[in-house]
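name: query_chain
kind: protein
chains: 1
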Amino acid sequence: MKFDIGILASQPLPVIVEQVRLAESLGFDTAWIADTHLVCRELWVILTACAAATSRIRLGPGITVPHTRHISVTASAIATLHELAPRRLVLGIGTGGSAAETMGLSVAKVARIATLESMARSLKALLGGGSMRLDTGAEARLAWLAGPVHVPLYLAGSGPRMLDAAGRLGDGAIMYSGVAPWLLEAALGCVASGARAAGRTPTDLDVAIWAPTSIDRDRALARDHVRGRVASALRHAFPVTWSAEDQAVIDRVRAAYDSYQHASAGSQHRLLVSDRFVDLMALAGSPDEVREQVRRVMAVPGIGRIILLPQVPGQAFVPREQVLRLFADEVMAKL
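structure:
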């Protein structure tokens, strides 16, 4: 099992760079930077600064979206960064959440399977030295590219069709479907179905999970800290059908969600997240509890990495640096 860090970069750029340097020193494999420009700092500036300040840790968008950046812009950006950090890049793509909502678009409106498929195929073509067809009918290519650039492509999904597409088209899949084994198994089934439909086996993919995470010796603080991240996850589709009671909680969270508080640990919508959903969706609690939660994830065959998603700290909440250190010392070192 590999452990990664996902970062909502609403803190100053030098702070984010130091957090990525810390993650590298602690043994985390990859740092994924969110692409939500009205809530966080600019993705590609952060990635470039982090690449220049580190030597081992892999880096990439986690995730970049199509409604704020043309696919050809994303291809040019990652290919350029590849010149600075070859063999250290990953490219996570999806249809988006907060970036869409802060621009007046709904998650449901942008979550189109054809969009994700088009992104994947076009990026592979451009980075391979080929071309993509624009909406105008013209063909676009990266004229400056000297040769093919291979950057592992991870498709993110939560609902059945997005997860199926990840299995068909990605080098890896990022599942945002919870941490409970029965939820993970349902999501993995969708990824595996897509892989088989494309003539692949599920083991051909590097499968990761987004895991809202907070760890502290004060378990109540850790669980409260993670609720905002859980609320974000509940906006998306799931590979399971919920009970009426569970669906009612999800509906209330979706109705109240404020995307401008997407990176805030003290968001008001977090108060609508029940303890049951913290248990189902997050790695949260004391070090001993989180270690056991991780062991349960590791017992599900087919998952290769866990991406920790610590909510951005606020007053009285757990600093991201503390989450990284405590997780490394009390979880990674003891598994």
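note: The chain has one domain: 2-334.
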